[in-house]
Write a structure and sequence with these properties.
Two copies of one chain form a homodimer. Helix content of chain A is 69%, strand content 11%.
Amino acid sequence: MVSDCTSKDRLRLWIRLLRSSRAIENELRERLRREFDVTLPRFDVLAALHRQPDGMLMSELSRYLMVSNGNVTGIIDRLEADGQVVRARRAGDRRASIVRLTDKGRTEFEAMAGEHETWVAELLGTLVPDDVEKLSTVLHDFNLNWGTKA
Amino acid sequence: MVSDCTSKDRLRLWIRLLRSSRAIENELRERLRREFDVTLPRFDVLAALHRQPDGMLMSELSRYLMVSNGNVTGIIDRLEADGQVVRARRAGDRRASIVRLTDKGRTEFEAMAGEHETWVAELLGTLVPDDVEKLSTVLHDFNLNWGTKA
């Protein structure tokens, strides 16, 4: 049976999605601060770079994290000063610089990542496995469709 | 059939949830700014107060929106200066003030709310009705469980 769906239904879903996302994000922000003295945006940048051992352009980082270029630049400046990332010129392009993790950055991120994964599993622990799989599939498709529109 | 589910599966779901939530939020923020010259936090405060005609305590607003008390106070200061909300002392309590929409605030919010609902319906338009209903139910339960733990 196919159900019908009004704009009010979609608005309600959006509010619920936003509330769950904010609640989880706030809790993770607080734990990262308390346990590792690291901000959430900084953790997000380290996590993104960890997935790309060859490094990322600032514009790619900004787009991937969906935050402004200016915000990413400030975070990278601080990570560079702390020796966790390096900037390198891209071959044949004097303007764009590639950012990548240093060994120090990788080691420090990996120490946090395990704890972070445990926290997420705990915070999402009230969802039964079938719902985890269903939501994951639906949101994956949603994000793919989002990327292709506009 | 009940599927199994690892912490990696829950982490993947969290990343997808965060990405979809951020994408929608960024787009709504941009449209609110462009069409109504209003910030998203300000819209969120107006929306919360619109649901509670008798007003809300600052602490209730802060908890409902899941942002810090300091942030809410700054937004309320500006809304009050613009005549969209009023603060009133709660009977028998000199410390806590109740905030509620003025007629002007209500009228101006309602003019934006219709557009906002249309945008949300459009942005979530790639989700089929059955998935809207499923996600909405699962996230509602998740949010309820969140509220009762801790």
